Q: What sequence folds into this?
């Protein structure tokens, strides 16, 4: 068993090393943390200072284009995970490695994961737009934490903890984002459309919470003593903790937005 674990870690390390010269951001943590620091600096310091004495920008056309790119990109990534991975099988074969589950398609799955990482960088543009439009209410701690933590999480999974359940995680995440950004795209078409979409706004938040809860629960399979190598335990710990924190923030938002009685 120890030999199998060593071989698994060695193969994973060798594969990751080969990709370090091929894929942007995978080789070292510093660029990732630098992007996060620049993002936080723009959102909390540079952006508000720049907009202090300026009128908010409209950026309607830009946001429509941004949302269309998000819809297409998330749909393409989810499609690739469905095509080259086995997300439904990965749920109940959690303890198996990526190579065991996907065979010759393992590298294609990891390449798709890299594109998902690039999309998480693109996600950060949304907050900058909120700053330029002076949509301060939308720049919540939940919004910032979710973007930063998801970006770091996907990088960690790709660089150090490549596991078969990543297929499930990213397939669900990207599928939910297709729905979410479709909602955002439609909401750019005026107040009448926004009033109509109020009927589904709560459902989208519920969908976000449900998919996070699903990932959290099923990722805990890694804590079963006989389930895979130590890498699987680390993967399960990081995934379940990240999901739990995000779920708590989403529930807090859900409670204050939809459940808590409004003052008269």
A:
């Amino acid at each position: 068993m120890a030999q199998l674990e060593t071989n698994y870690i060695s193969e994973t390390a060798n594969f990751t090393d080969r990709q370090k010269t091929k894929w942007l951001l995978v080789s070292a943590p510093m660029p990732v943390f630098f992007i996060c620091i620049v993002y936080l600096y723009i959102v909390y310091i540079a952006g508000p200072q720049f907009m202090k004495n300026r009128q908010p920008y409209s950026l309607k056309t830009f946001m429509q284009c941004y949302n269309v790119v998000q819809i297409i990109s998330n749909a393409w990534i989810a499609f690739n995970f469905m095509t080259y991975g086995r997300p439904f099988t990965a749920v109940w074969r959690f303890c198996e490695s990526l190579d065991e589950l996907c065979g010759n398609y393992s590298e294609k799955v990891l390449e798709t994961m890299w594109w998902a990482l690039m999309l998480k960088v693109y996600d950060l543009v949304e907050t900058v737009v909120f700053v330029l439009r002076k949509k301060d209410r939308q720049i919540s701690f939940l919004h910032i934490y979710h973007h930063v933590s998801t970006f770091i999480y996907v990088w960690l999974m790709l660089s150090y903890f490549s596991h078969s359940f990543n297929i499930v995680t990213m397939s669900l995440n990207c599928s939910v984002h297709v729905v979410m950004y479709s909602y955002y795209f439609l909401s750019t078409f005026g107040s009448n459309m926004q009033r109509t979409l109020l009927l589904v706004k709560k459902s989208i938040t519920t969908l976000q919470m449900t998919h996070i809860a699903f990932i959290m629960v099923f990722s805990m399979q890694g804590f079963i003593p006989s389930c895979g190598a130590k890498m699987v335990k680390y993967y399960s710990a990081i995934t379940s903790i990240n999901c739990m924190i995000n779920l708590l923030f989403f529930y807090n938002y859900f409670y204050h937005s939809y459940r808590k009685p409004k003052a008269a």
The chain has a mean pLDDT of 88. The CA atoms of residues 130 and 137 lie 9 Å apart. DSSP finds eleven helices and no strands in the chain.
